[in-house]
Design brief:
- By secondary structure, this protein is of the alpha+beta class.
- It has one domain.
- Helix content is about 25%, strand content about 25%.
- The protein is built from ten helices and 22 strands.
- The strands form six sheets. Strands 2, 5, 6, 7, 9, 11, 12, 14 and 16 form a nine-stranded mixed beta sheet that branches. Strands 1-17-18-19-21 form a five-stranded mixed beta sheet, covered by helices on one side. Strands 3-8 form a two-stranded antiparallel sheet.
- Helix 1 (about 80-85) links the parallel strand 6 and strand 7.
- Helix 3 crosses helix 4.
- The two termini are about 20 Å apart.
């Protein structure tokens, strides 16, 4: 069902917004593990380099609400959101009214630790960690609840610039890149900065498997830098794009991977701040959101899985097939949301840039809106999402795609169909 929310241009009737931020860094005494690299072999983190956060932006007209949640984590396994929704049941939230957008940090909470169905005891991939799971669910619930407690009329504006040389395609023979940096400014009606949304497409993989401390990676540095530049207690919310084959690029020599991640985040943060200053926000008078359900193909393992290096961990193809069917869903969804002049299209996994750019282009035409972003890894992780040709090429990304060669087309068609329902959003006066 699509939800259309309108108001007049009178500031007293404007759509309102509220933000909240919570530290979700787990205590080291519970021995939490990091997600992102199997070669860590399930070893616990050694410390905290910098804290990780969950942040929430709640938008409401007094009747309908929508919450965007960003988090400095690798991704969320299928089922996490539904458990958060159960904890919010008394507040009346619906599945389509909340969207989770992880940053995909590879030095943060792993998916295996947050999956109650993960009782497989495959230590290379990590095990379910109930104490960490309960703590994360509690904090996600809290940040959503707190974001709706102080709602103010707001103005918004979005800017998109091309930023070449900051990312690259990591797949052999593929040069497609998404170079769009999208900055959305959200101010109160009195002109005070409230929040800034940043969309940039690249893996947070400047740190490697040998880096064993918790960190938000370069997205964490990016967000802190922007908040320091702008001040006034602003909340910066970063969300990734179709980053399935996109790696960050930063020239220069660095003493450590930690230094490299910090430099990348700080320099990118300065570019965002410069762009933020140019944006002239206008009163937010309408927003909408829609949940599109997607039936997935049968779960299967790519023929090249055993040649991808996974054999090193003692996995057999038939075992992986069973694991995939146990841990991955048979149905997923895409939430699309429009906030003023910005449309965010949620993708439930790691989509390659080729498909992401196609979805952006088709959504722009369908909705009649220029500023369209991909919200990568939205709500849940179903694996990599590739075009048929790229799936057939094989390599790492294809071997971590668990629904066959048709998955990319199915997801792309479904999300564009859902996002197209965001068009023709009338003002209240037009409904009378």
């Amino acid at each position: 069902m699509i939800h259309i929310v309108n108001s007049s241009e009178n500031f007293d009737d404007l759509v309102k917004a509220g933000v909240a931020k919570i530290d979700i860094t787990p205590p080291m005494e519970i021995r939490p593990t990091l997600g992102g690299y199997s070669v860590r072999m399930g070893k616990p983190a050694t410390g905290i380099h910098d804290p990780i956060y969950a942040k929430a932006l709640c938008i409401s007209n007094g009747t309908k609400c929508f919450v965007l949640v960003t988090a400095d984590v690798l991704a969320f396994p299928s089922g996490v959101k539904s458990i958060v929704m159960k904890s919010l049941a008394d507040s009346g939230w619906g599945d389509g009214e909340i969207m989770f957008l992880p940053s995909h940090s590879h030095t943060s909470i792993g998916m295996a630790a947050l999956n109650p169905r993960n009782n497989l005891r495959i230590f290379q991939k990590g095990s379910f960690h109930k104490e960490l799971f309960d703590l994360t669910i509690e904090r996600l619930t809290q940040v959503i609840t707190e974001s709706s407690r102080k709602m103010l009329p707001v103005s918004t504006g979005t800017s998109v610039i091309q930023l070449s040389g900051w990312n690259q395609n990591r797949r052999t023979g593929n040069t497609t890149c998404d170079n769009e940096l999208t900055v959305t400014r959200i101010d109160t009606k009195t002109g005070n900065p409230l929040a800034v949304l940043v969309n940039w497409t690249a893996h947070p993989t400047l740190m490697g498997p040998e880096d064993m401390m918790f960190s938000g990676g370069w997205p964490g540095h990016l967000q802190r830098k922007i908040e320091a530049f702008i001040g006034q207690n602003i909340t910066t919310m970063y969300y990734n794009g179709a980053q399935g084959d996109q790696s960050p690029v930063l020239p220069g020599n660095f003493d450590s991977s930690w230094q490299m991640a910090e430099s990348y985040g700080l320099k990118l943060g300065e570019i965002v701040w410069q762009e933020w200053q140019k944006i002239i926000p206008v009163p937010l008078t309408r927003f909408s959101y829609h949940l599109e359900k997607i039936d997935l193909p049968e779960c299967l393992v790519h023929p090249g899985f055993m040649q991808s290096g996974n054999f090193r961990y003692g996995f057999k193809r038939i075992l992986i097939q069973r694991i995939a069917k146990k841990l991955l869903p048979s149905q997923t969804h895409s939430i699309s949301a429009r906030i003023g002049d910005l449309a965010i299209v949620g993708i439930p996994g790691e989509m390659i840039a080729q498909l992401g750019l196609l979805i952006k282009s088709q959504t722009r035409k369908a909705v009649g809106l220029q500023n369209v972003t991909i919200g990568g890894l939205a709500d849940e992780w179903i694996g990599y999402i590739l075009s048929t040709d790229e799936y057939r090429k094989g390599d790492y990304e294809a071997t971590i795609s668990f629904y066959g060669e048709s998955l990319g087309n199915i997801i792309a068609e479904s999300v564009v169909r859902g996002a197209s329902l965001l068009k023709k959003i009338p003002y209240l006066s037009e409904l009378k």
